[in-house]
Structures are given as structure tokens and as C-alpha cells.
């Protein structure tokens, strides 16, 4: 087999036979260059396929078909609670990332322990954010409130879905995914609540350890895994921190994307 | 495979270029030529080469079944779409730009503004640093976990079994954790308990009553979790925790049942006339 190119594959020659504008020529040259190295065309085919699949939606909804909009317009505000919680999640992610620049999870005695007795490094970093950092007080406030708003919106979203019967066939699996998401949202809240390592955080953590210890058979193992022991310590705080800023963001973001993707494909269920 | 004969006629043919049916391959030994392992015998696929779909069609077993099902499902979907009088959203819809996008952006701006307003006006407080040696008088999780915290305080409901000599089967705290699992589990299986096409509460007074029971119970169990902060007899609070939701559920059921007749008349007229029951 010779290495010489056959005419079919002489893309340069093929381009010369055509009357191309500079833009077209540039585009084709780039495409051919990349395709030779990365097999772009194969992936373009997959993308094309995906494009058509993504654009598939269920047929017109009952409301649209029979012009029932005027019959239930008063439900509409409740249909935006899902968007609201997603937005709050976004705000929490951004403010949380900025908070993360200044926070350090450690139960060692902090620099501010001289003024506040018993203050740990993590407590002092919160104190620094709230007292010394420009806009730090607002930043923490935004993070906390967006978390509260997200949980509240998620609860109300669930109630809306329940009372409009939107969980029924074919949407059962998305309902279960929603249950998982609401639980993870609360775990998000709980782990975040523990990070300042103040009195409330410590004793809420204590309740958490006792709850996991009370699980039959696996209790001690769960307590070790989640809280790093049977009493609260540095490893507890570290685990809560990693769960809050590393594990949950990946998992929850992915699940939210799937949740919304399914809604997109199945369409929104209105009451009849 | 119409011109298969012409290819088999060629005497010095080195390869079966059409991908070959079984009969074809039996009739075509490789002509006694040496087998070349350097790839020089490979030729590009031509029109006779079976496509991947054709190759798939020849498979057996599970993959064959899967393929057949996909074909059937695709055909069914297509038939349904062709029969239906529905209009696909792709064709007829509210334009994404600018209508939908502008509306979404304004809603998003308003919501984010609300969050910023809340955080500016009601900034959070931070308590004293953690101190393992002094238990605070009030231990509470965040408000959205009150219901779960309340479920941990159901000790009086943990049954004492006579056969165990009046001792409890489960520790009280195990019972509390189990109560959480039961509540979340029940909510998760709702779609498998309540089926059918009914959507509005008035169409299904019972399930609406269950929902109202759940909502009121979430509030009362939250109140129970902060019982030391509520100026009320604790036993009375405990009883009310379970009584109020039931009362609210019964009232909901009665109201919806009463509304139902007149309401369903309207709904039925509109709904069943357009979508006759199968």
C-alpha cells in the first residue's frame, strides 16, 4: 500500500477546483486540518444526531392544544419555583467560591483566640470575613440567604408538583430524582451549617453523629465515614468541608442538569 | 447485491468486496494467493459493503431483540406523530429570542435582586465559638431540618412489646431515624401509589387531603422539635402534632368533595368531550 494520496483524498486539489470566498476557504482549511488530526467529522455526526434528539419534545401540551390558558393562568407563578431554586443555587455557588478564598477548615486555635475565647481557625476566618474583609459581611449574607432561598424554593416546588399531579406517568422517575435532589440540598445546608464551627454548628454536628450511630448494624461505620469518629474533631470539620465544597457540587450540579434535561424532553405538565 | 454475479466472474479477484453473504463466501476461496498480513489486501468500503445497520440486522439473541424493539418503537412513535393532530413545538412556538429570553432574564434579575435585598437587610448572625464543655440551652439545626429533628422526638410512640417483657424493640433514636426513612420513602413512592390522569386536587380529594396532611404535619412536627421554645403544655403539643394534620386533611377532603360536583361537571364537559375515555 503506497503512502501516496489518492485523488479522492486530495482535499487541497478539490478545494482548488471550487470557487471559494476567503471565509469559506479558511473554514474548509481549518476543518480539514482538524479533521485529519481529530476525526472531527465523526463527532459532528454524533452532534448532529444529538441536536435532533435534544430538539425532540413531547407534542403540544393539553393547555396549548385546547386553549385552556385562561382557565389556570393563576398557577403560572408556581411554575417558576424550579427556576428560582436553580438561580439561588447559582448565586450560592458563586458567593461560595469567593467565600472559599478566605475560609480555612481547621479546629486549631485561631489567630483571633485572644479576643474571642475558644475561637478556632475556621471561626476566626469567618470573623475575618465578617469584620475585616471588604463586602465580606454582605458576601456571607448572600451565601447564606441564597442557600435558605434555594431550600425554601425547592420545598415549594415539590408542593407545586404534588398538588398539580405533575409527578404522574411518565414523570415518576423525575419525581424520585427530585426527592434525591431535595435530600442532597438539605445535606448541602447541613454541611455548610457546620463549617463556622460555632456553638450551633458543634451541637448540630453532635446530633448528626448520634443519628448516624443509631442506624442499626452500619451505624458506627457511617459515623466513621461521614464524621471521622464518634466525637467531633478536626476530621469532622474537614469531611464536612470536602463534602460541601467538592463532592456535593459535582453530584448536585449533574443531577440538576439531568432533572432539567428530563423536564425539557418531557415538557411541562399542566393540570387539565 | 444485484451485481454480485459480475464481481464473482472476475477470475483474479483477490477479495470479496461486497462483505459477502454466506453462500458467497463459500463459493469464493481466496484463489490460492498468499495471505498478506501487511494490510495491502484491505480496500475501502464500496457500495456493496453492508452498512452498520445491515450488520446489526444479522445479529442474533439479545442484540437482535433490542434492534427489533428499537425499530418497532421508532415506527410506533412515527405512526403516533403522523396520526396525531398535535403540532410539534419546533414548528409553532413562542419565539425563544427575544420573547422567552427577555422574560427569563427579567424573572432571573428579579429573583437575584430579591436574594440580594434579603441579604442586605437581614444579615446572618454568628454565635459563640464551639465549646464541647458547655451544652447550649437551645440546640437546633437550620429551619428546613426541623421536621427531621422533630421525627427524632417520637419516643412516646415507640411501641413496647408485651412479648419482650415491656421492653422496646428498637432504641428510641433508631426509631427516630427510621421515622425519617419512612417519611421520605413514602413521598418517593407517591407516583406509584397514585396513578391515572387526574391532575387537579378537586379531581382527587383523597390525595389532596393526603398532601394537606403532609404539609400541616411538616409544620406541627417542626413545632414539636422546638417544644422547649413553645409556651404550651408539651403533652398537648404532642397530641396536637398528630391531631391538627388529620383535622386539616379531613376538612380538605370535605371541602373538595363538596366542590367536586359542580367543578367536575365543567371539567368533564371540557375534558372528556375532547378526550373520550379509552
N-to-C span of chain B: 47 Å
Strand content of chain A: under 5%
Multimeric organization? heterodimer
Q: CATH homologous superfamily of the largest domain in chain A - what is it?
A: Cytochrome Bc1 Complex, Chain C
Class of the largest domain in chain A, according to the CATH hierarchy? Mainly Alpha
Report the sheet with the most strands of chain A, covering strand number, pairing sense and barrel closure.
Answer: none
Low-confidence stretches of chain B: 1-29
- Tally of helical segments of chain B: 9
Question: What percentage of residues of chain A falls in helices of 4 or more residues?
Answer: 55-70%
Calculate Rg of chain A over CA atoms: 27 Å
Tally the structural domains of chain A.
2
- At the fold tier of CATH, the topology name of the largest domain in chain A is Cytochrome Bc1 Complex, Chain C
Q: What sequence of helices (H) and strands (E) makes up the elements of chain A?
A: HHHHHHHHHHHH
Give the N-terminus to C-terminus distance of chain A in angstroms. Answer: 68 Å
Strands, helices and their partners?
The complex is a heterodimer of chains A (272) and B (278).
Chain A: H1 11-17, H2 22-38, H3 40-54, H4 62-66, H5 69-72, H6 81-102, H7 121-131, H8 136-163, H9 172-194, H10 199-213, H11 219-227, H12 234-266
Helix pairs in contact in A: 6-8, 7-8, 8-9, 9-12, 10-11
Chain B: H1 4-9, H2 22-27, H3 52-57, H4 61-83, H5 96-121, H6 146-151, H7 172-193, H8 205-225, H9 234-274
Helix pairs in contact in B: 8-9
Could you please describe the fold and organization of this structure?
- With 272 residues, chain A is an all-alpha fold.
- Helices cover 69% and strands 0% of the residues of chain A.
- Chain A has 2 domains: 19-54; 68-266, Cytochrome Bc1 Complex, Chain C, CATH 1.20.810.
- Chain A has helices at residues 11-17, 22-38, 40-54, 62-66, 69-72, 81-102, 121-131, 136-163, 172-194, 199-213, 219-227, 234-266.
- The termini of chain A are far apart.
- Chain B has 278 residues and is an all-alpha fold.
- Chain B is built from 9 helices and no strands.
- The model of chain B is unreliable at 1-29 (pLDDT under 50).
- The chains are: A mainly alpha (272), B mainly alpha (278).
- At the A-B interface, helix 6, helix 7, helix 8, helix 9 and helix 10 of A face helix 5, helix 7, helix 8 and helix 9 of B.
Amino acid at each position: 500500500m503506497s503512502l501516496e494520496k489518492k485523488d479522492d483524498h486530495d482535499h487541497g486539489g478539490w478545494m482548488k477546483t471550487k470557487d471559494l470566498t476567503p471565509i469559506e476557504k479558511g473554514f474548509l482549511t481549518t476543518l480539514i486540518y482538524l479533521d485529519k488530526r481529530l476525526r472531527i467529522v465523526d463527532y459532528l455526526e454524533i452532534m448532529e444526531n444529538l441536536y435532533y434528539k435534544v430538539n425532540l419534545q413531547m407534542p403540544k401540551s393539553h393547555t396549548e392544544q385546547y386553549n385552556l390558558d385562561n382557565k389556570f393562568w393563576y398557577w403560572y407563578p408556581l411554575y417558576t419555583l424550579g427556576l428560582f431554586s436553580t438561580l439561588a443555587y447559582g448565586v450560592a455557588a458563586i458567593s461560595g467560591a469567593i467565600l472559599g478564598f478566605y475560609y480555612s477548615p481547621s479546629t486549631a486555635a485561631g489567630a483571633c483566640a485572644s479576643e474571642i475565647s475558644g475561637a478556632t481557625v475556621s471561626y476566626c476566618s469567618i470573623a475575618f470575613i465578617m469584620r475585616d474583609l471588604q463586602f465580606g459581611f454582605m458576601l456571607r449574607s448572600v451565601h447564606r440567604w441564597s442557600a435558605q432561598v434555594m431550600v425554601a424554593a425547592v420545598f415549594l416546588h415539590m408542593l407545586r408538583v404534588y398538588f398539580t399531579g405533575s409527578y404522574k406517568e411518565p414523570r415518576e422517575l423525575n419525581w424520585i430524582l427530585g426527592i434525591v435532589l431535595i435530600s442532597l440540598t438539605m445535606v448541602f445546608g447541613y454541611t455548610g451549617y457546620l463549617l463556622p464551627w460555632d456553638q450551633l454548628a458543634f451541637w448540630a454536628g453532635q446530633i448528626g453523629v448520634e443519628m448516624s450511630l443509631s442506624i442499626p448494624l452500619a451505624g458506627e461505620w457511617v459515623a466513621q465515614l461521614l464524621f471521622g469518629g464518634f466525637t467531633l474533631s478536626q476530621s469532622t470539620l474537614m469531611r464536612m468541608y470536602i463534602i460541601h465544597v467538592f463532592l456535593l457540587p459535582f453530584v448536585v450540579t449533574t443531577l440538576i442538569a439531568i432533572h432539567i434535561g428530563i423536564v425539557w424532553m418531557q415538557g411541562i405538565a399542566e393540570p387539565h | 447485491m444485484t451485481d454480485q454475479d459480475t464481481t464473482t466472474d472476475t477470475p483474479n479477484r483477490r477479495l470479496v468486496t461486497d462483505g459477502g453473504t454466506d453462500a458467497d463466501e463459500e463459493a469464493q476461496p481466496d484463489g490460492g494467493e498468499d495471505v498478506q498480513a501487511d494490510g495491502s489486501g484491505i480496500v475501502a468500503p464500496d457500495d456493496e459493503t453492508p452498512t452498520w445497520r445491515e450488520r446489526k440486522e444479522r445479529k442474533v439473541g439479545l442484540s437482535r431483540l433490542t434492534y427489533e424493539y428499537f425499530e418497532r418503537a421508532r415506527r410506533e412513535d412515527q405512526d403516533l406523530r403522523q396520526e396525531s393532530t398535535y403540532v410539534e413545538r419546533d414548528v409553532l412556538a413562542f419565539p425563544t429570542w427575544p420573547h422567552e429570553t427577555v422574560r427569563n432574564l427579567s424573572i432571573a434579575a428579579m429573583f437575584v435582586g430579591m436574594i440580594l435585598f434579603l441579604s442586605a437587610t437581614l444579615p446572618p448572625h454568628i454565635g459563640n465559638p464551639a465549646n464541647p464543655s458547655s451544652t447550649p440551652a437551645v440546640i437546633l439545626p437550620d429551619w428546613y431540618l426541623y421536621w427531621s429533628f422533630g421525627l427524632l422526638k417520637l419516643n412516646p410512640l415507640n411501641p413496647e412489646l408485651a412479648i419482650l417483657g415491656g421492653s422496646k424493640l428498637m432504641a428510641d433514636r433508631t426509631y427516630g431515624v427510621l421515622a425519617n426513612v419512612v417519611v421520605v420513602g413514602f413521598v418517593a413512592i407517591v407516583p406509584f401509589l397514585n396513578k391515572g390522569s387526574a391532575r387537579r386536587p378537586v379531581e382527587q380529594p383523597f390525595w389532596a387531603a393526603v398532601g394537606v396532611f403532609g404539609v400541616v404535619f411538616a409544620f406541627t412536627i417542626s413545632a414539636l422539635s422546638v417544644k422547649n421554645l413553645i409556651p404550651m403544655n408539651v403533652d398537648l403539643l404532642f397530641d396536637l402534632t398528630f391531631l391538627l394534620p388529620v383535622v386539616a386533611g379531613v376538612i380538605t377532603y370535605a371541602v373538595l368533595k363538596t366542590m367536586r360536583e359542580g367543578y367536575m361537571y365543567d371539567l368533564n364537559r371540557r375534558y372528556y368531550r375532547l378526550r373520550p375515555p379509552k
